[in-house]
């Protein structure tokens, strides 16, 4: 899982204060860079059009092959970050770089996994994975082999012919992850993918995701509301402020390599890190609860 720090004291010292954009190892360029990114939306309320700032002047670097978790209060712009990086939306100002090149739209170098599974109900698990490969012009035999390989990677060998309605929620999300991995993106963007699952399934898939990350070496940006999930999965955790979202602090997670045999969540270091992050979030959550959201009163976005 890569190199980590050796203690909480060092973690606290390095993470203290409002960070500049984080950097990778010495001489290592960032894989992903958010550089002074601001995103505003125009929202209509009745006859008025108002401006709504989701994120403001945000800086964040993600290292090659890193698992970066992002936590923040509701409405702070976490999902907006993923939309911007996915190329589904453009920043109002600032820029987003992938391998030093500006992101100007969607691309096959980025795979996305949402909370909703978004599987085609008329296609089998294997056929759902093959769909994106068809768009790339990959031949039928290679598509079939790739789909089966990635179904095996997520633990679904033997379920190739099942339709979504024949799969549990956890299995559907495994298919969605396999589909995103199958076209071999460099970066995997995950927007609360386990939020709708029960606790046992969620913890099982968290461990599965770490195993997949270790095997593939993908760069992962993982959005979550759960502090426990962020600490368990992330090499680093970026804590966002209340809206407009900025990076308040980046916390290193020096827990070493996780394994299914160890209950890392019961370790003292895990509890300390969770408490450290909650201390950063507590005031932001309070602030977010006092903020009015323009669209909450029936407003709608203006394109």
TrEMBL record:
Annotated ABC transporter domain residues: 32-267
Region (Disordered): 1-27
Record organism: Paenibacillus albicereus
A molecular function (GO) term: ATP binding
Coiled coil (residue ranges): none
UniProt keywords, alphabetically: ATP-binding, Nucleotide-binding, Transport
Entry protein name: ABC transporter ATP-binding protein
PROSITE patterns named among the record's database cross-references: ABC_TRANSPORTER_1, ABC_TRANSPORTER_2
Domain of life of the source: Bacteria
